[in-house]
């Protein structure tokens, strides 16, 4: 796959919603109801939702663009964690949230997710964050493994409501290098 990783623009909102509709169900526990998944997609991952994320100065969306096809995306939220369980667990501050990290299933296991993660960590560090954190469903073993491989470790738990069900997420974080710590000798 030849692709680039770039910041998303307002023009990507429709394609991001299409990609989210394919990838969000993959992150849900097997017992999640299709109705709850559809409601979550409509409420938080619609084209209109993506338009507002892309217009929010505290949010950065990175996409894997393969000749105009979006094959993955990440969403970085640069504001203090609102959830008190998360705020209490984090040690590397200020921290950016990796709020979403999704790759099209045709590209799982091929290194694309690692490239997206590398770009996401670099983007947060360049913006001055000293840590990155994320919430991942405790049953999503593949994503947890991927995040561990990417340098995250479990630091706590939080709850997440999907429709009528309360899901339990692990909170994971990693410290980011200070941009000025790089040596340019
Ligand atoms: C999470 C995601 C971005 C990772 O990308 P990927 O290309 O699949 O990741 P990788 O193949 O590099 O790593 C996955 C690891 O999990 C392992 N794995 C796969 N299935 C697994 C399972 N059921 N249980 C435990 N580990 C599993 C793989 O073997 C691999 O580890 P390894 O390299 O040590 O062998 C991608 O799978 C994805 O988009 N998933 C759907 C959406 C999602 O869950 N997003 C995260 C929401 S928080």
Helix content: 25-40%
Query: How is the CATH topology named?
Result: Aminopeptidase
Treating each run of at least 4 consecutive H or I residues as one helix, how many helices? 6
The helix/strand class is alpha+beta
Order of helices and strands: EHHHEEHEHEHEE
CATH architecture label? 3-Layer(aba) Sandwich
Query: Could you tell me the strand content as a percent range?
Result: 25-35%
Q: How many DSSP E strands?
A: 7
Mean pLDDT: 94
Distance between the termini: 35 Å
Uncertain ranges: none
- The largest sheet has its strands arranged as 1-2-3-4-5-7-6
Task: Produce a short descriptive summary.
The protein is built from 6 helices and 7 strands, in the order βαααββαβαβαββ. It is of the alpha+beta class and 185 residues long. The protein is globular, with a radius of gyration of 16 Å.
């Amino acid at each position: 796959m030849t692709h680039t990783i770039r910041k998303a623009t307002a023009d990507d909102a429709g394609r991001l919603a299409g990609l989210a509709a394919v990838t969000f169900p993959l992150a849900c526990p097997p017992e999640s109801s299709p109705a709850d998944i559809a409601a979550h997609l409509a409420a938080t991952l619609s084209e209109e939702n993506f338009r507002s994320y892309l217009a929010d100065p505290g949010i950065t969306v990175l996409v894997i663009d393969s000749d105009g096809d979006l094959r993955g995306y990440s969403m970085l939220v640069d504001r203090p964690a609102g959830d008190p369980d998360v705020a209490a667990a984090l040690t590397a501050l200020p921290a950016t949230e990796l709020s979403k990290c999704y790759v099209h299933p045709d590209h799982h296991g091929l290194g694309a997710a690692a490239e997206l993660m590398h770009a996401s960590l670099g983007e947060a560090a360049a913006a001055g964050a000293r840590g990155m954190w994320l919430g991942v469903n405790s049953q999503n073993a593949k994503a947890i493994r991927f995040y561990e491989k990417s340098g995250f470790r479990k630091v706590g738990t939080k709850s997440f409501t999907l429709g009528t069900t309360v899901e339990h997420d692990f909170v994971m974080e990693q410290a980011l290098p200070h941009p000025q710590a790089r040596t340019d000798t």
